[in-house]
Amino acid sequence: MQGEWIAMSERDVAALRRRSKGVTVLPLGSIESHGPHLPLGSDPLVLRSVVRRMAEQEPVAVLPELPYSFVLEATRRPGAIHIESGLLMDLVENICDEAARNGFRKIVLIHGHGGNVALHWMFCKRILERGKPYAVYSIPPLPDMGEFFKTVMDTEVLGHACEMETSMVMAVEPTLVRMDRLHGRVYRSGRPPDVGPAFTTVEWVSRWPEMPVGEPACATADKGEKIVSEWVDRLVASLRKIKRDRVVLRVMREFAAERRQGGTLKRYGGRLR
Ligand SMILES: [Zn+2]
User: For 199-247, how does the pLDDT look when each residue is reduced to its tens digit (9 = 90+)?
Assistant: First the structure.
C-alpha cells in the first residue's frame, strides 16, 4: 500500500510528512459476527481495500488499521473481540498523540465500523477538551451515502451484514463470502421498546439479536464495487479539503488559549450576568 506507515523507513516517513502536508490517516475497523456468510473482520477487510485505493490517488501516511473496536452487542455471538469504551478512547488518543509527535498535525480517522458513530463524535470533542496541539478529522463509515445506496441497492433495510455490506465484501474478498449458507434468509427487525424519540441502551440488541440486517442474499459483487468506488471518491475529496484546511488548528489554538486564561469569565471582564 502507498504510504503504509509500517513499510516506510525513517527517511521515507519524514519525506511523506512533507509531501502529505502533515496528514496521516488511521483506519478503524472491528472484529465481530457478520452472520453465517461473512468473515468476522469484514469491516477491516473492506476498509483496507478502500484506504489502499484512496492512498493511490492522494499522498498520505497510512497508520496500521486498528482492527478492534467497541462491539459489545456482538459479544452474544461467537468471534467478537470487544474493547471497553474508555480503553478504546485512550488507545485512539494515544495513537494520535504518537502520530503528532512524529510531526503529523492533521490526523484523519477513517471509520469502517458502523457502531463507531458515537466514538466518532465524542472523540473529536475530547481532542478539543484536552487542548491537543493537532487537529483530528473524523470521517464516519460510508459518509452521507444514504441517497447513493438507493441508486444501487434493491432492498431498503440496510445496516450490518446486509445487502450493502455483503456486496462490498464480495467485491473485495470474494473467496471469504459463503452465500450458500444464507438460503435466502431475510433478517427482520425485532421490536425495540416504544419510547421514541428516546434512544435506549438496547436499541441494537432488541432489533438485531442475530446481527445481520435485511436481505443479504440480494448482494452482488457488482453492487459492492459501485459502493466501494463511491466511498473511495468521497474519501479522496475529503482528504484534499483537509489538506487545504487552515481553520481547525487555528480555532483549536484560540479555544485552548481562552480556556487557559479563565475562559468565559475573563472574556466578560470577570462578571457573568
Ligand atoms: Zn461490518
Answer: 999 999 999 999 999 999 999 999 999 999 999 999 999 999 999 999 9
Cα 267 to averaged position of ligand 1 atoms, centre (Å): 46
Peptide bond preceding 197: is omega within 30 degrees of 0, i.e. cis? yes
All cell numbers assigned to 12:
521515507
Centre of ligand 1 to C-alpha 67, Å, is: 11
272, three cell numbers = 457573568
Domains of the chain listed by start with CATH number: 5-267 (3.40.50.10310)
Å from CA of 115 to ligand 1 middle: 9
d(CA 51, CA 62): 8
Predicted confidence (pLDDT) per residue in 51-100, tens digit: 999 999 999 999 999 999 999 999 999 999 999 999 999 999 999 999 99
The residue assigned the cell 457573568 is 272
pTM score of the predicted model: 0.94
d(CA 222, CA 51): 19
What sections of 194-262 are H helices per DSSP? Answer: 203-207, 221-244, 248-260
Q: Phi and psi for 86 in degrees, rounded to 5?
A: -65, -40
Between the CA of 97 and the centroid of ligand 1 the distance, in Å, is 27
